[in-house]
Amino acid sequence: MLSRDDRRLKIAVVDDDPAVRQTVADLLTEEGYEPVCCADAASLLSTLEAMRLDLIVLDLKLPDRDGIALSAQISATSGTPIIMLTGRAGDIDRVMGLEVGADDYIVKPFHNREFVARVKAVLRRTMREMTAPAAASPKRGYRFAGFTLDTDGRKLTDPMGRPVTLTVAEFDLLLALVRAHGRVLSRNQILDLTHHDRDDVFDRTIDVLILRLRRKIESNPQQPWLIRTERGLGYIFDCAVEAFGG
């Protein structure tokens, strides 16, 4: 069971439908998590001020706030991972959710086992970052263009030594690109390397994540030189990379 400091992980369940909230809360309780139910955006924001959350399961359509706008606000001010939960299945909604920093996306109605697997996958990918000592120096990782990618602490620092905030999905994508530096990776190859527990991720997901990464590490995202597009083939991390720590 996932734990931190011997406490139950707190997961906010944000949905205006009482039946959905109860179903999700029951699933999380059965897995040993502590659900915190919120019926609207205002309730979630109050909860974030009052306690630390380990994950937010956020409905796209809320009575007092658009879920995508709310996700963007949370991503800009908090490192709490977000799983978007919605009844919309269109690609455009998935893309919008990813663009604002959501870590995963689940369409209602969902299978209980799939939902639990998604929750565990996001938490599993964040556990090392959550438990890594804040002041610890990176023991293993990669250096490129002045950046340092700490693979143990799941952190990225820029050439000035400042932390670069990455979502779980962004970090996994950057790590895959860096490890394959100098080689072109197709979208399918990137999906295989970064989304092991998903079977409905689509190619556009990678394009959106690439755009987000470029905004954070490229000096000019409109003319990228670190992550280049090879038209019709995929993407290549076109930069010298130094591995350290074995």
UniProtKB/TrEMBL annotation:
The modification 4-aspartylphosphate is found at residue 59. Keywords: Cytoplasm, DNA-binding, Phosphoprotein, Transcription, Transcription regulation, Two-component regulatory system. InterPro entries: CheY-like_superfamily, OmpR/PhoB-type_DNA-bd, Sig_transdc_resp-reg_C-effctor, Sig_transdc_resp-reg_receiver, WalR-like, WH-like_DNA-bd_sf. Residues 139-239 bind DNA. It comes from Azospirillum griseum. PANTHER family: DNA-BINDING DUAL TRANSCRIPTIONAL REGULATOR OMPR, REGULATOR OF RPOS. GO terms for molecular function: phosphorelay response regulator activity; transcription cis-regulatory region binding. Gene3D superfamilies: 3.40.50.2300, 6.10.250.690, Winged helix-like DNA-binding domain superfamily/Winged helix DNA-binding domain (1.10.10.10). Residues 10-123 form the Response regulatory domain. Signal peptide: none annotated. One of its GO terms (biological process) is regulation of DNA-templated transcription. GO terms for cellular component: cytosol; protein-DNA complex. Its main location: cytoplasm. SMART domains: REC, Trans_reg_C. Transmembrane segments: none annotated. It is found in: Cytoplasm. Residues 139-239 form the OmpR/PhoB-type domain. This is Regulatory protein VirG.
